[in-house]
Amino acid sequence: MQKDLEKENKKLLKVKKKMAAKERRRKRPSYFGAMIDPKRFHPSQIKFYLILLPVLVITVLPILFTISHAFKPVEELYAYPPRFFARRFSFDNYRALISAASQTDIPFGRYLFNSILVSIAVIFLSLLLSSLAAFAFTYLKFKGKKFLYAANQLAIMFIAIAVAVPRFMIITYLGISNTYLAHIIPLIAMPVGIFLLKQFMEQIPKELNEAAIIDGASRWQVYWHVTLPMVKPALATVAILAFQIVWNNVETSSLYIIDEALKTMPYYFGTLTLATSSIAAQGIQAAASLIIFMPNLILFIILQKNVMNTMAYSGIK
Asked: Among 202, 190, 40, 76, which Cα is nearest to 127's?
């Protein structure tokens, strides 16, 4: 008798779950007749696929070309008319890259170590400074707050080449040229990162911070234990932007570094293409471009969900 009751209870629970799921789907908000973020395919999504698929193709084609170009043999690199995809995949470009690298005085591992070290330092310091500045702009009250934030917004408009001369003067005045600090210090200030984090922090209910302060938490504890865990998507986005800036940076090694052992991998690949014949340089450049590009792609694929959340909740429409 008891087993029969248990079976009946289980059946009732299943029926209730199905009815609750149907009710949730019925009440789910819609946009122009299509459900927002439906769990399964819905015919109303077809019109969106018709728009997104051509955009996806246009976006993916340059990535496919970069990968295919790196594995083309020399005769296909110079083929006319140019071929989009390689007919015969070859590792000749990478063999030429390794051969050219083995003839230099500084080993390839040294340039790779410099790039990794500088990238880690820039990402960590950028996240720390950007999050602290965004926290101050969002929650603290101090004189000159509006002016400083306006200056930060103005700084977003300037590209790196526009501030190359004053940056060179500052680095020379500080006496950090030809050191690792010349790689790190100019890149840790990220106006875009401050903007994204501030916009994201403004979405957090202020009652959470006020409750933490009432419970006896300091400003630092509120920042570390309450605010940062809730802005992880924005932090991931800033980390991607910082990595792209520092990983692809060539200007620092060209302008501020004299010692060859302190230069980074992108600069090193550029010198390899200049030091070899024009025919071999084309293959080396194709292989080097893929090596530089792949970490950016992999990091974005891993953190893409966080990037989408940041754009959705940071006020960027």
From this structure: 190
CA-based nearest residue to 235, from 126, 120, 115: 126
Residue 169, token pair as written in the block: 């003067």
Residue of 208, 276, 220, 253 whose CA lies nearest to 110? 253
3-class SS of residue 30 = strand
Give the separation between CA 83 and CA 60, rounded to whole angstroms.
17
Taking 90 as the threshold, does the pLDDT of residue 124 lie above it? yes
User: Is there a contact between 243 and 123 (Cβ–Cβ < 8 Å)?
Assistant: yes
Q: Cβ(83)–Cβ(68) under 8 Å? A: no
As a whole number of angstroms, the distance between CA 96 and CA 91 comes to 9
Query: pTM for the complete prediction?
Result: 0.77
pLDDT at 43: 76
* Domains and their CATH numbers in the chain: 105-313 (1.10.3720.10)
Q: Is 24 exposed, middle or buried (0-12, 13-18, 19+ CB in 10 A)?
A: exposed
* DSSP, residue by residue, 197-239: HHHHHTTS-HHHHHHHHHTT--HHHIIIIIIHHHTHHHHHHHH
Asked if the model's pLDDT at residue 69 lies above 70, the reply is yes
